[in-house]
Amino acid sequence: MSRLQEADRLRPGHKPILQALAVAWLRASHPAPALACFDQLLSITPQDWQAQHGRGLALHALQDRTAALAAFRAVVSRHPDAWRTWGSIADITPHEAERVQAVQGAADSLLRLCSTGEGEPRRHADCANVLLDAHRGREAIAFITSSVPRFKDAATAQESLARAYYELGDFREALRYKQRALSMGCPDVPAPRPQPRFSPDAAVGALSGIGKILNSAGISYFLAAGTLLGFHREGAPLAYDRDVDIGILANGFGSPDVARVIRDHPALMLSRRARPGDRYFAIVFQGIAIDIFVYEPCDGGLHCGLGRLAGDVAWRFTPFGVKTADFQGRNWHIPDDPERYLTETYGPGWQTTDAGFASVLSSPALFRVDPYVRAYYALSRAHKSRVSGDEAKARALLRQSPVPVELTDPGTSMALPPCADRDTTFFSAEKNEEGG
Question: What are phi and psi of 176, to 5 degrees?
C-alpha cells in the first residue's frame, strides 16, 4: 500500500497506479478510499467499466446496496459480457427474478467469451461452474467435453464433469469422473493454508444474530446436528467444529421461504445455485459458516437433506417438536427429545468423540441415499484429509464407502473393499467430524 501511495504521489492520475491502489484499498477492507480511487478513475475515463465494477464493490462494502446495484447494472447495460458483474448483481439483488436473470447472464457471457477464443484456461472452469449455478447441467457437460484441451489441465476438466453429472443425478458417472480427477492429481483441494481457528464464542454470537434475523421474518429455528451435539454434550459449540448447524421445521413445501430472507437481508448472501424451495442453505454471517436445514414432514417422518434429487444425501427423523433449553444462562430452541435426535443422527455412541465421523456416509438417519453418492463423498473427504496430512482419517472415510473406491497419489494407491465386507461401526457427520 505504501509503495502504491508513493507511486500515486509521484505520478498522479496515472490509471494503472490508481487501479492498483483502488483494488488494494478494497482488499484491505477500506472501501471509502477505494471508492475515491474508483471515482477518480471514472472522472478520467467515464467508460471504464472495470472501474465502475470496482465502484459497485466499494459501495456494497459501504452497505449502500442500492447504489452498488445501480453501478453494476450500468456495467452490464454497456458490456453484456462482464460476467463477474452479472455475478455481483446475482449476489446482492433483493429481487429473485433479477437474481436468476443475472446468473443466466453470467453463464451466457462466459460461453460467448470461451467460444471466441478469449477464454483463458481458468475461465473454462469458471464457465462450467456458472452453467451449474444456472441449473444448465446438460449444457455444462457438452461444454466441458468439447473444451477439455482448453482447460488448465485434464484433472480440472474431469472434476468439472464429476460435479456436472452429480447435479444431474447421475451419481455413478459423477463418481467415475471424480475418481479420474483425483487419480490425475486433481487441484480440487489446494495445499493446506492456516485457517482462522473456530471460535465457540464467535459462533454463539453469529448464532444469536442469525436467529434474530430469522425471527424477525417470522421463522423459528432450533439447534441441529453438530451444534446441538456441542450444546447438549458440552454446553457450547464444539471447539473443533468449523460451522454452525440450525434446523427449521417446515409447515409445507417451500414454506417458510428461507431463500427470500437470505436474499433480502443486506448482511447475507444467497448462493447463486440456490433457489426458493431448497431445503439446505449455506451462508456466512459474522465470519462464521452457518448451515440451515429445512425439516419437512413426509410419510410419517421429518426429512432434511442437501438437495431434492432422488438418491442425494438426505436424513429421516422421528417427528419431533421444539422446546426451550438453557445453556450457559441463555435460552435456545432444541428438539423436544434431544437424545433421541442425537442417537438417530450419530448412533448410540454420540456421547463419545469420534474424529472420523461423517454423516453423509453412515449416519443411522440416512434415508434412501444412493450408494454412489456415499462413495463420492467418501472419496472427496478422504482426499481432503490426505491433503491435510491426516492419513488415518482418510482411510477411515474410505472404509465407510458402500462401493469400492480408490485414492491414488503419485506412487501410492489406497484401495479398500466396500464397508459391507468389514466392521461398519463407524458413525458419521456430513461435513466435518461430528460438526454435522
Answer: -60, -45
User: For the chain, how many residues are written?
Assistant: 436
| Alpha-carbon gap, residue 45 to 10, rounded angstroms | 20
Structure-block grid coordinates of residue 60: 456494497
Name the β-bridge partners of 246. 223, 292
* Strand-strand pairing, 244-249 and 288-298: parallel
Higher pLDDT, 358 or 213: 213
**In angstroms, what CA-CA distances link 129 with 34, 74, 139, 218?**
29, 25, 11, 34
As a whole number of angstroms, the distance between CA 164 and CA 177 comes to 10
Predicted TM-score (pTM) of the model is 0.86
DSSP 8-state symbol, 30: -
As a three-state string, the secondary structure of 305-355 is: ECCCCCCCCEEEECCCCEEEEEECCEEEEEECCHHHHHHHHHCCCCCCCCC
Task: Give the closest residue to 434 by CA, choosing from 226, 227, 293.
Answer: 226
Residues 6+ apart with CB under 8 A from 254: 276, 277
Report the C-alpha gap between 72 and 68 in whole angstroms. Answer: 6
124 or 425, higher pLDDT: 124
Helix (H) or strand (E) holding 409: strand 405-409
CB-facing half-sphere around the CA of 385: CA atoms within 13 A: 23
List phi, psi (to 5°) of 244: -115, 135
Tell me the Cα Rg of the chain. Answer: 23
Answer whether 206's CB lies under 8 Å from 212's CB: no
What are 125-144's pLDDT values in tens digits? 999 999 999 999 999 999 99
